[in-house]
Amino acid sequence: MPTLFAHGIEAGLPSGFEGRIFKRQGSGVEVANAVAQFSTFALPDDVGDFGGGAVTSMGNDDIFAVLFEYGPDSVGTRLFAHQGLPRTLNVDDFKPYVLRRGLTGQSGTQWFFTESGRPFTLYAVLGSHARRSILVPRINRLLAGLTVEPAAVGTPAGAPWN
Known about the structure:
Layout: E1 3-6, E2 9-12, E3 18-23, E4 34-39, E5 63-69, E6 107-115, E7 118-126, H1 132-144, E8 146-148
Antiparallel strand pairs: 1-2, 2-8, 3-4, 4-5, 5-7, 6-7
């Protein structure tokens, strides 16, 4: 199983998945935080953080998932109150209306949480809502292989894992 590690996020990729972990360039006062993208199809280079430019090319058996880190000022807020990365999703967690851009036949889910003192959202898209009973166990295998480490000690707030 190939493993990716960057910015305090480690991902053991199950068979059929590819991924990347990176930070976008911050501009001005905006701080760049970690973004981890995973898919069962080739990701174009110019994909938006939440799959813009990629999800339109998904097939019925494809999965796209992103783990997006927010700034440290989000820790302790109500939105990020849930502790721990979701490890097991259910077919009922996926809805066609959760998608950031509604595409016929697809469905998605989104979870806000804090893991290792770091605030994240998990956003996942299935290529086919009708095939979610087959696709959800595959995304659960991906989630089982994700690890988030605490922000490095002495790292400025908002810039963990430079």
